[in-house]
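Table S2 (continued). Query chain:
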Amino acid sequence: MRGRSAFGLLSAAVILLTLGPAGLAIAASPDTGSYAPPLREDGATYHGATDTFSGGTYLGQPTDANGCAADGSSISPKGNPQAYRCLPAGATMAQLADGRVLYWDALEGTENIAAGSTDSQGLPVSSVPDGGRLTVNDESRLLSLGSSGARWTKPSPVDGGAHNTSRAEDLPLPPPLAATHYAYNDGSLFCADQVFLGNGEVLTTGGTDYYSEPSFPGTDKGFIELEGIRNTRVFDPTQDAWVQLAPMNHGRWYPSLVTLGDGRVFVASGVTKLIKPVYPSHLQDSGTNVRQTETFDPTRQPAGSWTDNGPGAERSLPLFPRLHLLPDGHVFYDAAGQAFNPAGEAYDELLWNLAASYDPVARTWTDLGVPGAGTPFAGFRGSTFSTALELRPDPSGAYGRASFLTAGGVLFPTPGSYAPVADSRISTVTTSGAGGERLSTVSTRPLGRSRWYSTAVPLPDGTVYAVSGADLDEVVTPGYESPIRRAELFTPTIDHNGGYTGGSWRDAGDQARKRTYHNNAVLLPDGSVLIGGHAPIPSGYGQTQDGMSLPGRPGTNNHHDGSFQVWRPPYFADPNRPVVTGVSSQPGGVVVVHTPDAPSIASVVLVRNTAQTHLVDGDARTVKLPVVGRTAGAVAVALPRSTNALPNGPYLLFADRGAGGDPARDVPGRVVPSTGQQVFVVGTSVPMVAVPSAAAPSVAVPATAATPRIGGVSPGTSRTGSAAGAVLGADGRGDRVRLAPGVPIATRRPRAGEAGALLALAGWALGLGAGAGLVVRRARPRRRAVSLPRAHAGDAPTHSS
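Corresponding output:
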């Protein structure tokens, strides 16, 4: 309790200043959307009046209100025989192309660092001296939502299968002070980053090796360390399996990934040792985050290899830097990242205030200035989102600028402002015209409340949904923040050329649960949002203990939350949502969208499938496709000319009805989107769209600049060579891919005399197995979204044992 008192004194003054409406419930209004009841893997019943769960089972045992069960399995940390196993929270979530959601936990095992728990000597446990021993590798899950309810399954291996056996970063301490490592927590998925590869697999890099360094002689205890690992894993949804790929050159904890226009993947930052960043074997890297950047090439052997980008590509960046791909193929750093205190800072962190652009061809960085210069809150923003707004073409059809929304968060690098702000801004990088890239910033109306660590989800109507978070920086004083249940919705304003001029926020109702740190949310195919996550640090860096509630300021939940909740945006209430009955791809970069609502369609948008963790989805993008032709039953839309604007991978296609049914009124927040149709963008220079078959929506998809298929590799083992359906790179005859073994398809724009050969691309549908042909796929009309499960006793979801 002494630790809690110290943290309480530190935060008391700020708490008094931040009392307000963060936790107060209001009745939902017609423009806030609606929330379905929460649901949980253990089948527990949710009681809305008390915000509690009961009646669940996990591992064959009853669960408590937090989804935990007594555990006697062999992976329980030694010295804690009364260990509990808890449902994994959705701290990281990825919307797979087959409709399922892949997710995994964060800080798994911290519920065992609780009041009353002791080590083998009978001493109380606490985060710093016991966290290296009591944490375990985070588990992953697959969640299916359908009309029959929710269903959970476990990937294999459930923890991703990575193990860091290197001791190269250990401090040179003699026994019994030398570091103590543990086999059950040496390759956690926690603090890895992930992106979709072109074929729908999930590339995941980095993560955490927990251990005790130094060890405390004669005890179970030691000073916790979290080491960033070099491991690279890929999740293959066709086998529900994790497979190990070639490792990175540098261990990274909190790195950021971005898919480049040619299908390669860029990684930057992360830290190799969070608590004690001293590296005797490479002292020059001590005291800062990983400056070296790398590029992953899935076509290289061994399957997927990393290349150090050289000294010109080095840059000091915050943990989980907010990175985005620009329409010119460069990578933009938006002067934002994870403000992780008291560790994770760097001696050169003042450089983090400068936005910058990385050129993957020249392998150099260019400073772009300070975002928001001249405003009260210029420069670095920590612990909040930087989300890509809809990429809109100019009147000529060119995609010459990209805009990014940042709102809330804390100011400055370490030590940061502790209290977040409500400030909101849009940073735009113009990539067309003379003079190179240019950065500009416009302020928007502020958030309705100051928010720390809120997750943003771009919606297909051009708006942005922000949910969860807290009123204080939880990483500074964990357990003393107050959760923000009130969500908000941002509607941007645009000029006649499609440029962003500002915008405003409005409330979007209250979610049911208290989600602060490691919260998450993803866009579902029907246009709704799945909310999940919450994996907090034990209170005061001591023991897991819920926060105290004050009048008007609810206390926090200091336990993991393995529940999920679905929010339906306001457009679900519109009875005239358009219906898409089919999608076909035509030569010349044209996509035909079949819809009986064609006369009212203002545009079609491609929204990349969400893959988000720690507020970061570097590949998130919504690309507007302008209408270039129209009939009574279909619209034709034009793709961008370059994969820099539309990189390959899985996307959801939405047709947007113009405001009031007028196709000329393409107004963000006023258009009404259809249900999404799963498609893939293929190509490494010029994009085209492929539509997977209904029978196999995520398999045998085009693999241009993507990993080879596993081809029978056992789950958890390493992939070392190509398999059937492997990638073909650029060969002088245009970019080529294999849809299935023996079926190469050209993906460049047609040259003279080639149009006839490419007509077969219309209505692509990708079958499973060798020799699968190309067939026309026409989806059945759908006027309503798939019904969501109800959290009632009679509707208990099925779950894995």
